[in-house]
Design goal:
The protein is α/β, with parallel strands linked by helices. It has helices at about 1-15, 20-40, 50-70, 80-95, 135-145, 170-185, 200-210, 225-235, 240-245, 260-265, 290-300, 315-330; strands at about 105-110, 110-115, 120-125, 150-155, 190-195, 215-220, 250, 255-260, 275-280, 300-305. It has two domains: about 1-95, no CATH class; about 105-330, Alpha/Beta hydrolase fold, catalytic domain (Rossmann fold). Strands 1-2-4-3-5-6-9-10 form an eight-stranded mixed sheet, with helices on both faces. Helix 5 (about 135-145) crosses helix 12.
């Protein structure tokens, strides 16, 4: 266990900007959660579906990162538990007070999906990012559905209910799925818009660049995958020659560099010219500021920058800004932060 903790510590410190104590605290608490779930599985006592396990792990991970960033003394246990619990209970009551959104689970060409909102002739297709799942769309739906939209979200390969799918989270697999989903939706809806997160935005642009999209809303989009891969190669100290020779190279920050992936990206550029609203975190470590600004100028976009935001919007302050941006832009206006 100590070897695993030491190996993961460096990656956590780099990826999430944690200090060593916080990284060790994260590892310890996540290990307890994973070990508990594993015990249920091996004793044949597991009551959860794969998507529920994925949601549990994701929410615990999010909660630990949020707590580490926002609760002083969390890593060493020196904080006011009663005050924090009272605040969480108050937030939960506020969340429960929101009007419930009509939603159902379904499948679109065998892909697990959800449809939220009352029947309508206009829809938002929601595409989650890496480590995400279709149920994330419920947060967006609370703003889109009152504006007369239905929100349709699917699980990408290896995510949500497709955790163990034979399909992989690769652009030549994910983008065609999104394209087929759009084509099926276009038989039902007269207006289709898209809301996508991180790599989900890149997949969406690959898939829908030649389709009619009334509106696009991108959250921390990956807009230059080649540059991102090359940046990760620099982080790992890997040259193009080394990657071309070895094809796949694991890294200590959790990503596997893949020569075939990089080659595919270079052979498959995209052109995006749809009306698009983007929200971007000033501390995004996946897409440089100049890259997102250049992209926003190259097509019909509005760019909102939260200077204290990160690639992953997750703190209370970040979520407040994100939710205000979603609410304003789904109505067709521009939120000026």
């Amino acid at each position: 266990m100590e070897q695993s903790k030491a190996a993961l510590r460096k990656s956590l410190m780099r990826t999430y900007k944690m200090d060593a104590d916080t990284a060790d605290c994260y590892f310890r608490d996540m290990w307890l959660v994973v070990n508990s779930l594993a015990t249920l599985i091996v004793t044949d006592s597991n009551p959860y579906a794969d998507w529920q396990i994925n949601a549990i792990l994701t929410e615990f991970s999010l909660s630990l990162c949020m707590a580490a960033k926002n609760i002083k003394g969390f890593a060493n246990g020196n904080y006011d538990r009663d005050a924090i619990l009272s605040e969480l209970v108050a937030r939960k009551h506020m969340a429960n007070a929101r009007a419930e959104i009509k939603a159902k689970r379904t499948k679109i060409k065998d892909i697990p999906a959800i449809i939220a909102g009352e029947p309508s002739d206009k829809a938002f297709l929601y595409i989650h990012g890496k480590m995400g799942y279709k149920e994330e769309a419920y947060n967006f739906a609370q703003y889109a559905c009152p504006q007369g939209y239905q929100v349709i979200a699917i699980d990408l390969p290896e995510h949500g209910d497709r955790k163990n799918s034979k399909e992989k989270l690769l652009p030549w697999m994910a983008a065609p799925e999104i394209k087929r989903t759009y084509e099926l939706l276009s038989e039902r809806y007269s207006s289709i818009s898209v809301c996508a997160v991180s790599i989900g935005a890149w997949f969406s642009m690959l898939a829908l660049q030649d389709k009619k999209i009334d509106k696009a809303m991108f959250i921390s989009p990956i807009v230059d995958m080649e540059k991102l891969i090359c940046t990760m190669m620099e982080w790992a100290g890997v040259t193009e020659e080394e990657l071309a020779e070895r094809i796949k190279i694991p890294t200590d920050f959790g990503e596997t560099l893949n020569w075939n992936y990089l080659s595919w990206v270079r052979k498959n550029p995209y052109k995006w010219d749809k009306p698009t609203d983007i929200i971007y975190g000033g501390k995004d470590n996946m897409t440089p500021r100049e890259t997102i600004e250049r992209f926003s100028k190259s097509c019909a976009t509005t760019l909102t920058v939260m200077e204290k935001g990160e690639h992953w919007f997750h703190t209370p302050e970040q979520m407040k800004v994100l939710n205000r941006w979603m609410k304003a832009n789904v109505q067709g206006s521009i939120y000026d932060n």
